[in-house]
Automatic annotation (TrEMBL):
PROSITE patterns: BTB. It comes from the Eukaryota. Residues 53-125 form the BTB domain. Transmembrane segments: none annotated. InterPro entries: BTB/POZ_dom (IPR000210), SKP1/BTB/POZ_sf (IPR011333). Pathway: Protein modification; protein ubiquitination. This is BTB domain-containing protein.
Length: 226
């Protein structure tokens, strides 16, 4: 015989330190709690009907079969000063309730709008580049910082030249500096790669800048070792 820690009555061994009745009561409470949590999760993750939004956005790559991304003017205006200006000044976007976003894919636009609501996004290399350009254009600093950190932290020999080219094109200095550091430290390995040959043919001026940084680094190293 044992004494139940909950009701203090004597019982035959059943479930650890609780009697059968207390164990069943606790089990029922846990199941009810799980049921309540699942119901709350289902409620919070219900899809938002487009009819209840007051603005829709369209991506530039959806000209033939445009797919709207519904949103709320208040959220867009609060997160982006550029979107706020568009929506506050009776521009055509504000009057029509439609915003056309140029030079962006539907997936990037959807991720961009979702970030404005949640401050969360699951990035890959391509999406990070697209969202970084969008965040710069629409002045969403938090997203810009997030994408830059992702691209810097994911730099490697395979993507260093393409990432440097992208960052140079859009003047994202933290990425330029990080990529250039990796490139100049690995010139002997990169020079035999197809990406190097393609860059040499496509943008010899950019490759010249890389070599200038490389030789400058070599000269500084020799001066310090002298």
């Amino acid at each position: 015989m044992r004494t139940c820690i909950s009701c203090k009555i004597m019982y035959s061994k059943y479930q650890g330190s609780a009697c059968r009745q207390c164990y069943e009561d606790l089990k029922a409470k846990v199941e009810q709690c799980n049921e309540d949590l699942n119901a709350k999760l289902a409620f919070l993750t219900m899809p938002q009907p487009a009819s209840f939004s007051d603005v829709v956005l369209f991506a530039d790559d959806d000209d033939e079969y445009p797919v709207p991304v519904p949103a709320h003017k208040a959220v867009l205006a609060n997160r982006s000063p550029v979107l706020r200006a568009m929506l506050d000044n009776e521009m055509k976007e504000s009057l029509s309730g439609t915003i056309k976003i140029g030079d962006v894919s539907y997936d990037a636009l959807r991720a961009f709008v979702n970030f404005l609501y949640t401050a969360e996004v699951c990035l890959d290399q391509q999406l990070a580049c697209e969202l970084l350009v969008m965040s710069e254009k629409y002045q969403v600093q938090h997203l810009k910082d997030f994408c830059q950190k992702f691209l810097v932290s994911n730099l490697n020999l395979d993507n260093s030249l393409s990432t440097y080219t992208f960052a140079h094109q859009h003047n994202f200095k933290p990425i330029i500096d990080a990529a250039l550091t990796l490139i100049t430290a690995s010139m002997d390995k990169l020079a035999s790669r197809d990406e190097y040959t393609e860059l040499k043919e496509r943008d010899p001026g950019l490759l010249l800048e890389i070599y200038e940084a490389y030789f400058s680094k070599q000269a500084n190293t020799q001066w310090h070792n002298a």
